[in-house]
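Quick note —
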Amino acid sequence: MNFLQFAVWGAYLTSMGAYLGGFETMRSNIGTFYAMQGLVSLFMPAIMGIVADRWVEAQRLLGICHGLAAAFMFAAGYYALQSGSEVAFAPLFTLYSLSVAFYMPTIALSNSVAYTSLNKANLDIVRTFPPIRIFGTIGFICSMLFVNFAKLNGEAFQNTAIQFIVSAILGLILAIYSFTLPQCETNNNQSKKSLVEALGLKAFVLFKDKKMAIFFIFSMLLGAMLQITNGYANDFIKGFREIPEFADTFGANNANALISLSQMSETLCILLIPFFLRRFGIKKVMLMSMFAWVLRFGLFGIGDPGAGVWAFVLSMIVYGIAFDFFNISGSLFVEKETDRSIRASSQGLFMMMTNGFGATIGMLAAQVVVNKFVYSQTDALAKVDGWQTSWFVFAGFALVVAISFALIFKHKHDPNSMQDIKH
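Predicted structure written out below.
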């Protein structure tokens, strides 16, 4: 289940920007496509969570959502393939938006199904779920590599709308498979979550606490960086093919394969989090993440697929620290610092600030930067210079956030407070 769950996403998440970048009518809206994922994440997971709690068993709802997401994604791919060079923004964006609206809730639903299944088998979730969850990252990587190397008429899937068809097929397989998963009973007791509770809105009371308010604001600022390289890295690297010096390099022709190193790094860095949190505390770990984002963007700015490919590789390696040390460590910090009565709502607020507001605002802002410095250019070398400027702008933003966080956020680390996350 986890393998397919993230393989569906990996088929297009890091390569969609490369496909859209091939159309003058589309490239200026790449950020809008990625921002939609953040926008629907503000409410769809909560709504589907209530449905699963009250009316439809989680494994069935998982199948229904994947089926609908796959249908809309297939429609998007079919429309794009049929339209060829005449593909229009409005119909493609509408079909894509409907697909991600039903896909984003499945991330939480798949976790719910996994936890329920492991509990029924009398297994320790803390010990048994992480190795299972790693198969999700493996699925993401396999899907990325497939659309990178698979070709039709000499053109890699990652550069065409076939990537949407691949995602749809994987989604349909998982939709069918979901109905064979262990039953997850609905909650029939009188204590039912309201939409306000499910969205995490009750946890807004935490903004009365200065430390937590600062933490959530910086979480939003960090969240603004989450999708930038997913949206633009592939098109950036692929653009080097237009320069004779780099036209035949492996990196320029296999951008997704190169980017997959980021997910491999992410898998390994998950294992480092408990040690780093116990040893250094949340503030230093978050700072590591922020400075890793500076390197992530800055190394893209100085690299190329030829002699400078080392910078790309290093950028992929530091991604694991940039992503995991923020997302997972931040979630654990919220778990430790909030009252049990609003703990679930606090996690909802953390996700809303990062993957909702942060990712949406970040991608729309990044779109403005890239459109100004890159897509306004017609010459290949001018575009590369524009990309360099854009990556340095993003790196500068990450650096300002890191320095500000170091100066403003106050937290005294207690090593004993993290002992129970040693697994």
